[in-house]
Amino acid sequence: MIKLFDYELSGNCYKVRLMLSLLGLEHEIVPVNFIEGEHKSPLFLKLNPLGQVPVLIDDDLVIHDSQAILVYLARRYGCENWLPIKPESMGKVMQWLSITANEIQHGLATARLHFVFNLKIDLELAQQRADMILKVLDEHLQERNWLELDRPTIADVACYPYVKLAPEGGISLEAYPNVVAWIDRIKKLKGYVGIPVSVVTIPSPKSRGANL
Ligand SMILES: N[C@@H](CCC(=O)N[C@@H](CS)C(=O)NCC(=O)O)C(=O)O
Q: Shortest CA distance to 208 belongs to which of 50, 79, 84?
């Protein structure tokens, strides 16, 4: 059975949980004790030398990085629906995977680190970056329901978590009505699952790297 090494409050792990659920795939969640630094233990580093969650195991395959995992799951289990192989379509979807790993991670996800995990980051810069990408997203979604191909793809799944979690980084979505409408559409997808809301700041992980 598919195993996901997971930390409940991580948006990158949530991305994978959401994809597994949208695809209706049975899986086992293996919680990683992030606060105690279990992701830096020798055992875990054998799965992912970067010491980061999520990590997915499917039979003999061990794969890390939430974007890479979405690609794997979509191609392995999702037929053409979530990631088509037509070069033009694939390119269109993949550009959002890069955006989520860069602009969204360094803006929205980083701002959330300050409030939820009490980490020292440049909050102003992160919030500026967050507003920049939200503006781009909002304009892009003005004339479409989904990020690409007129249907939900892994582009939507990849970008959704940290956009949805923006308020936890002190960023209001009020000025971005098309983004809010897109969030509502994603919530209505068959198999949708949510992420627990972090209402309090939790202790910083004992062992931390660049990201959370
Ligand atoms: N590019 C990776 C980033 C993964 C990542 O940063 N995971 C965080 C949790 S959300 C983590 O494990 N951070 C610990 C560290 O960087 O040491 C992905 O998309 O999965």
A: 50
The two structure tokens encoding residue 138: 């909002």
- If you measure from the C-alpha of residue 48 to the centroid of ligand 1, how many angstroms do you get, rounded to a whole number? 10
pLDDT of 208 reads: 47
Q: Is the CB of 39 under 6 A from ligand 1?
A: yes
Judge whether residue 31 has pLDDT over 70: yes
- The one-character DSSP state at 103 is I
Decide if 64 is inside a domain.
yes
Q: What is the CATH number of the domain that holds 181?
A: 1.20.1050.10
Helix (H, G, I), strand (E, B), or coil: what is residue 29? strand
Pocket test for ligand 1, best of 5, 7, 12, 44 (most atoms within 8 A of CB): 12
Distance 37 CA to ligand 1 centre (A): 13
Convert the pLDDT of each residue in 143-163 to its tens digit: 999 999 999 999 999 999 999
